[in-house]
């Protein structure tokens, strides 16, 4: 496992933890989360797509926005790391864990 892959996995855990914090303190955390996600998406060159709401939940197909990000899943496409997303619907989060 490369250093990049490890840091992405750490980020997933971070996002997942943040998700729970947001449930409690949505407003305070939102600004931090926005920056983290924007940086990550710029890194994978998916930021434009994200702004246009072209990135969809892997399960239900709903457009992913800053408000409904549930799980971030990195994968490799043509040797580049890309991100796929599941929205924060409990059914979609469950689907992600079932598919692992
Ligand atoms: Zn979904």
Q: Summarize model confidence as the mean pLDDT.
A: 82
Query: Biggest β-sheet, characterized?
Result: 2 strands, antiparallel
- Series of secondary-structure elements, N-terminal to C-terminal: HHHEEH
Cofactors, ions and other ligands in the entry: zinc ion
Q: Which parts are unreliable, with pLDDT below 50 for 5 consecutive residues or more?
A: none
Distance between the termini: 18 Å
- Biggest sheet strand order reads 1-2
Q: What share of residues are in beta strands?
A: 15-25%
Radius of gyration (CA) equals 13 Å
What would you note in describing this structure?
- This protein is an alpha+beta fold.
- The protein has one domain (3-99).
- Helices cover 55% and strands 17% of the residues.
- It is built from four helices and two strands, in the order αααββα.
- Strands 1-2 form a two-stranded antiparallel ribbon.
- Helix 1 packs antiparallel against helix 2.
- The longest helix has 22 residues, at 3-24.
- The protein is globular and about 35 Å long.
- The two termini are 18 Å apart.
- The model has no long low-confidence stretch (mean pLDDT 82).
What brief labels describe this structure?
100 residues; alpha+beta; binds zinc ion
Write the layout of secondary structure elements.
Blueprint: H1 3-24, H2 26-43, H3 47-51, E1 69-77, E2 80-87, H4 90-99
Antiparallel strand pairs: 1-2
Helix pairs in contact: 1-2
The structure holds zinc ion.
Zinc ion is lined by residues 57, 59-60, 62, 86-87, 89, 92.
